Amino acid sequence: MRAFALSPPPPGMPEPAGTPRGGRSPHPLGSPPAHLPPGAPMPTRPPTRCAEPGCRALVPRGRCDEHKPVAWAGRDDKAARYGVSSGRWRTLKRRVTARDSGCCYRCGIEQPDAEDDPDGEHQHQLDHIMPIFEGGAVEDLGNLGLICVDCHEAKSKAEAARANRARRRS
Known about the structure:
nuclease, endonuclease, elongated, about 25% helix, two-stranded antiparallel sheet, endonuclease activity, HNH_nuc, alpha+beta, 3 helices
């Protein structure tokens, strides 16, 4: 197939709508379909039904506004989970870090300095020593400890297994 170069229109003639350089062609009936706002470019494919079962709304793709998933909906939110704001949580972590001298309460490893860990990947975390689901207090400094990432992962895994066994028994 050969490509042809288009020459500009003669002086005084308007540029035809929908040229290869001008973008999409206008709708042949003169106005966009009812589901498009006025002045919107023509879609490259016809609208489809919303992907949500039972919804009949026409959308360009995916789901309608009513059924679109909320961004970060699954994010772990301590404020919602424990009733503790992020500012309060940071204050608690500062106090526990000072009390525990920056050491993990399980293995004793020291928290790396910020200069040695610029990404914060190895910073110790604040942990509920007695899990909340077993009756541990949420904001009690006596139930909070500084824990390294490795110990926290192992402890959380064991707690989750314990909680799952308890759920199955009940």
